[in-house]
From TrEMBL:
Organism of derivation: Lasius platythorax
Pfam families listed in its UniProt record: 7tm_6 (PF02949)
Annotated GO MF terms: odorant binding; olfactory receptor activity
Protein name stated in the entry: Odorant receptor
Membrane topology note: Multi-pass membrane protein
Length: 307
């Protein structure tokens, strides 16, 4: 079946059990049902247990990651239950390709459309993989730089979960982090595979390229202001953290006792980071910007899939 879908998207559709009537479809669907259901229990368990926690930004981080998995779950179920409709779409795309391939001009147009769809798919998937890797690296870096998180049970996890066991050793912590990275990676890939599918289907519509360009430019423009605020907040937080490090690295032990106590107060005060907040609800940082963009893209793709 020849369509404008790239090989990467078709491979992803097989992996997530979306490709209709494939021999391995049922097996993959059972796997994703078990994996996503288990993760959702732990994620929403964290949300329920920590609903009254003082650090609201951490709570919202747990909510956003849980909802991202929920959105993937919903979209997969919608595509699974409508596999007949999806199969008909694939048949129509294949027939449309065969009808236009006989003409040189139409063949050139179809090939150009397919190339645009393939590039868009690679960009979407690549950006999502990059965001997952940088987000996970940021969590690990925060654990390394924070002296209060020396013990494994005090370290931050990539995904906020209420696990049924204690993380008492480094080996357990590394195992949990590895499983969570694996889960987050494939959740992100699943979201982008579906988004790439929607982009490919949209490119088969009339004036699709112009509509796509206008939508992308509008989306980038609307998010640029939020990115600037988050970048400023990240810079301010990093600089405030550097104040404490600089005070600690100074020759405070050579100072008089009175001045040494002042240095101590500076270090204590610097532990409370200076941040830019959104109505004092959450800190504005690059990690928060990534979560917002990921969630908004998921909501948009869900609306497109439903309507």
């Amino acid at each position: 079946m020849q369509t404008t879908l790239s090989r990467l998207v078709r491979f992803g559709l097989h992996i997530y059990g979306i490709w209709p009537y494939a021999p391995s479809t049922l097996l993959f669907r059972l796997y994703w049902i078990m994996m996503l259901s288990t993760a959702q229990v732990f994620q929403y368990g964290y949300v329920i247990v920590n609903i009254h926690m003082d650090d609201f930004s951490q709570f919202m981080d747990g909510v956003s990651s849980a909802m991202a998995s929920s959105l993937l779950y919903i979209k997969l179920v919608l595509l699974w239950t409508n596999q007949r409709t999806f199969f008909d779409l694939l048949q129509m795309m294949s027939a449309d390709w065969q009808d236009h391939i006989t003409s040189r001009y139409n063949s050139r147009v179809m090939t150009k459309t397919a190339n645009i769809a393939h590039r868009a798919s690679r960009w979407i998937i690549g950006l999502q993989i990059g965001s997952v890797v940088t987000y996970s690296a940021g969590v690990l870096a925060a654990n390394i730089d924070n002296p209060e998180r020396v013990e494994p049970y005090k370290r931050e996890l990539i995904l906020k979960m209420a696990l049924p066991f204690n993380i008492s050793t480094n080996s357990i912590y590394l195992a949990v982090q590895g499983v969570q990275f694996y889960h987050l990676f494939f959740v992100g890939c699943g979201i982008t595979i579906i988004n790439s599918l929607l982009v490919t289907l949209s490119l088969n519509a009339p004036n699709a390229a112009a509509i796509l360009v206008k939508s992308v430019l509008f989306y980038i423009t609307m998010n640029l202001e939020a990115f600037i605020y988050c970048l400023s907040g990240e810079y301010l937080s990093a600089k405030s953290k550097m104040i404490g490090n600089a005070a600690y690295d100074s020759l405070w032990y050579d100072f008089p006792a009175k001045e040494s106590r002042i240095i101590l107060f500076v270090i204590i005060r610097s532990q409370k980071r200076l941040t830019i907040t959104s109505a004092k609800i959450m800190d504005l940082c690059l990690e928060r910007f990534t979560s917002v963009v990921k969630a908004s893209a998921s909501y948009l793709s869900l609306l497109l899939a439903m309507y």
